[in-house]
Amino acid sequence: MSALTYEDRLFLRELKKSLAASCASFFDATFGTNVLPATGASIVIEGRVLMDMYDHAPGMAFFEQDSTRSVAVPPYTNFGELREIAETRFAELEKICREADEDYEGLFTPHSIRICNRDGEVIDLYERGAWLDDTIPPDQWD
C-alpha cells in the first residue's frame, strides 16, 4: 500500500512532464534536435476486436468491439519519428490480421492512429491509409 495520495501522484506526474520538457529543450538547444514538440507524446492505434460469442455452437458466431492499442514511444523522439513508429506498428497489426487463418477470437483489426501531445490533445491523425493534412482544424479531429 502506498502512502501517496491522489494529489501527490498528480503532482509527481506533472513534475515528470516538466522535467522531460526541460531535458528535451536542453537537447534541442545543445544538439540542434527537435524533440520538444514530441516530448510526452502518446501513440494510440484504434481498431476493432473480434470476440467469440458464446452460443450452442462455439466459434460460429462473432461480434466486434471497439478497442485500442498503445504504442511505446522512446524518450526524446522527434515528431517525424513518431509517425514512423506508429506506421510500423500499424503495419505489423495489419499483417497479423491478414495472416489469420481460422482462429479469429481476439483478433485486432486496426483502422486509425492518433498521436497525442503531452496534454492529451490530438496532434496528428492517420485514417484510410494516409495522414490527415492541415485542412481539417484540430478541434474537429474528434
Question: Mind explaining what this structure looks like?
Answer:
By secondary structure, the chain is of the alpha+beta class. It has one domain (37-140). The chain has helices spanning 6-31, 79-98; strands at residues 42-52, 62-71, 107-116, 122-127, 130-131. The chain is globular. The two termini are 38 Å apart.
Task: Write a short abstract of this structure.
By secondary structure, the protein is of the alpha+beta class. The chain contains two helices and five strands.
Helix content class: 25-40%
Span from first to last CA?
A: 38 Å
This entry's quaternary arrangement is: single chain
Gyration radius (Cα, Å) is 19 Å
Q: Can you write the helix and strand succession as a string?
A: HEEHEEE
The tally of structural domains comes to: 1
Shape: globular
- Strand arrangement across the biggest beta sheet: 2-1-3-4-5
Q: How many strand elements? A: 5
Structural class determined from secondary elements: alpha+beta
Uncertain stretches of 5 or more adjacent residues: none
**What integer is the average pLDDT?**
83
Main sheet summary = 5 strands, antiparallel
